[in-house]
Amino acid sequence: GENVEQHPSTLSVQEGDSAVIKCTYSDSASNYFPWYKQELGKGPQLIIDIRSNVGEKKDQRIAVTLNKTAKHFSLHITETQPEDSAVYFCAAKIRVGGGADGLTFGKGTHLIIQP
Amino acid sequence: DTGVSQNPRHKITKRGQNVTFRCDPISEHNRLYWYRQTLGQGPEFLTYFQNEAQLEKSRLLSDRFSAERPKGSFSTLEIQRTEQGDSAMYLCASSLLADTQYFGPGTRLTVL
Fold it and tell me: What is the pLDDT of residues A54-69, one digit of tens each?
């Protein structure tokens, strides 16, 4: 099955600096890669996603890049703000029997924005 | 609130008891997913419905776990004879398109 590795597990950056979180996946058939932000006691919130037919996608301060050949994708957050502090998860879509789809998640990165 | 809702938000039960959680997806979303999240881990896919059809069961953790979506709207996840290892956050997500899944706030289960 699909396996998603995520690094680093903890990332501390100064407010205003950039943060980069990296993920690798194992199944070359995976074709959809979302990123979620999870705050304490809440469910994951989709922040950006990318499909395998594009290499980069941006949404204001957030960008995601995808390298299909190397099977890795990254989240870039620029001009970090205190409210960016949270746990971030990458995921890859898996396809299981019967045409059903589920997401395989990485273990998460705890992003800490230092004031 | 038009997001995914889950009830209850917290459930404390004794080992051996049965528990049932409910998920109400975003209106008109035909796909509904259940995940489990343990402390320090990402969500783990359990099962999936398209309308009322359950298209994947093999990821359910044991035969003590079952899910239904009888009318293609809300869904329930039941755990029978709970064990301490079942303590986790149970998350529901829904989608209209094949890819984009929106998660609810989760139900935190504690088994004593």
Answer: 899 999 999 999 999 9
